[in-house]
Structures are given as C-alpha cells and as structure tokens.
Amino acid sequence: MSRIIPRLARLRTRPSLSEYHEIEARLKSSHWDLFDDSISAYHAKQLYATLQSVINPTARFMNENMESLNKRFCKGKTVPYGYSMIYCNPISGENELGFDGFDNYHAPCTEDKDYFYRRMWVAGSFQFNPDRPLRFGDEVRFTETVDKIRQYKRLEQIGVDYRREYKVDNVWSIIETRKLYYIQKTYTEERYHLVEDSDPDHTVVIVPSTVSIFRSSALMFNSHLVHYNPIYGSRYEDYPSIIVSGPLLVQLMLHFWQQHNPDTTALSLKYKIINPSFANERIDLCIRETSKHRHRLWANSRDGDLCFVADLIIA
Q: Which of these, 38, 36, 34, 42, lies nearest to 219 by C-alpha position?
C-alpha cells in the first residue's frame, strides 16, 4: 500500500467548470497509435487457458492439450472474438498511473490531479469485419481516440467513450468502443435489481477466482488495483472483495458463446455491465437465440440480478 499513498496526494474534489473544459479539450484532441504491433498467438493461448479454466475448472493444458492448442492458435488462424482486447493497450510507467493503479492517458485528470475516487468500465461494443478478420501474425496499425466526453450531476461524474480501431493493410478489421465512468461516490451495496425475462438456450455456472482475474488483467497490462488488491478496494473504494473486470466478463461470455456456435460469423456486439461481480462468487452465463441474426447474452450474479447483458448480431 505504500505506493498508493503518494498517488493519493493527487486526489482532489470534482473539477471546476474551467478545469472540465480544459480536460475536455485535451481528451478530444488526444490519440495514440501503434504501427507494427504483431498479433501473437502465444498470448492468445494464455488467454484461452485462463478462460477455459473458469468455464471448466478441471481443464489441463501443459500435459494434455498443448498440441491441440498449438494447432488452434497459430499464424494465419482467425483471432477468436474478444481476444483483441489483450492487444494494443496503453504502456504507462508507474508515475503515469492514477492513484488507483489504472492508466490515466485518456482519463479526465491533469498531470498533478485526480478528481474521482472511482472509475468503472460500464459498456462497450465491437464491430467485426467478416471480409478481413484479425489473424494471428498480422501486423496491425492501431489507433485509439476519445469519441465522447460528458459530465453529469454537476461534474460529480464524467463519462468517456474510447474508440479503438485495428487495421491490417489499411483495411479495418475490428472497431471497439469502451465506455468508462469516473465518479465521486465509492461503492455501496445498492444494486440494480434487473432480471432477464427469458430462458436461456445454454447456460453454465462459473466462479471466477482471484488467479483468473489477475491473469486476465496481466494480459491486458491492466494494473487497476480493484482487480487484485482487496485491501485497496475495501479501504479506498468500499468494495467487499476483488472485482471481476469488465473485459474478463466480455471474454468469458464470447468464449462460452463460441463453444456453442463455432462456425457462426459475428458482425457486432454491444454490451452493458449492470452490476459489479466479485471474485469467488457464482456467475451464471446465459445465451439465447432471439432471431435468425441476433443472440442475447447475459450473466446473472449469485443473487440472480443481472450483472452483464449484450446483443450479438451474426451473419
């Protein structure tokens, strides 16, 4: 915890209106690019082992499944849906992180001030190009920009939308958006008591462990403390336990969907994270075909409340 204390000196109350306009101008004009990042099959194998270990806790790889993994994840094969999230993430030094350990490059802050106690990954989307899917071994040109920034509740909350585009040979392959909220309030036990009003075609019960959450975060270079430091989460953000990250929920949901739809082409995904999920607690992953070209994906927490919901459009 000693590294957190100096960062806490950066923490301030909500920004003034003039500070907000300065932040807005900086974020809207900022971007970062990668020009020659290679899509590694090895990192995808690590993610597969992480996800499959959650879906099937008896899965083994080093002694039993390495040959099949090597055939499935190799140069030229298509990157599974959701796996692109482990590539092309910000590379920040520790002195560039927020007090919560998360990357601050596109955050509503200044060089010496953090204005919000908590940031949450609340929604996102993907567009997949069926004519040019991302493949292992591809040399990718990647760009991330801020698409939108909005303030709510008299600057007590700011929402930022990020746009991430993966191109290969000047043709877009994946366009991803990520929506993060930056808020003043710490976590409370209040939850949105929402349920999905239909029965799933397929469902599986999972219990993400602290190890799985850590591995997923490490593959994304995500050092957000709420995903591996329970003391920080409890003391500074009032969380009862380690949080299951938004990307891990997305990847688990798509991993489970692809197991039941291995030959189906996805065109787009739009998702929301309704309630937080916690380590070592039950989550039910559910899939339902709602029409010829649309599947509904959702996840329930141990109390039956929705924690994740998504609409997947297929070819």
A: 42
8 A C-beta contact, residue 211 and residue 218 = no
Check: pTM over 0.90? Answer yes or no. Answer: yes
Q: Which two tokens stand for residue 132?
A: 């040019």
C-alpha atoms less than 13 angstroms from C-alpha of 137 in its C-beta half-sphere: 6
CATH number of the domain that 161 lies in? 3.10.129.10
Does the pLDDT at position 2 exceed 60?
no
Residue 1, pLDDT > 90, answer no
| Nearest to 196, CA basis, from 315, 280, 81, 295 | 295
Cα–Cα distance for residue pair 277/273, rounded to 1 Å = 9
Longest CA–CA span in the chain (Å) reads 60
- Interatomic CA distance for residues 279 and 169, integer angstroms: 40
Residue 21's domain comprises 4-314
* Inter-residue contact 167 to 173 (CB < 8 Å): yes
Token reading at 263 = 């030959």
pLDDT tens digits for range 196-247: 888 999 999 999 999 999 999 999 999 999 999 999 999 989 999 999 999 9
Q: What is the mean pLDDT of residues 100-107?
A: 89
Average pLDDT over residues 287-304: 95
Contact 265, 231 (CB under 8 A): no
Three-state SS for 83? helix
Q: Which of these, 119, 289, 308, 288, lies nearest to 208 by C-alpha position?
A: 308
**Domains identified in the chain, total number:** 1
Residue 286: count of CB within 10 angstroms of its CB: 22
Whether the Cβ atoms of residue 187 and residue 174 lie closer than 8 Å to each other: no
3 state DSSP class of 160: strand
Residue with tokens 């380690």: 242
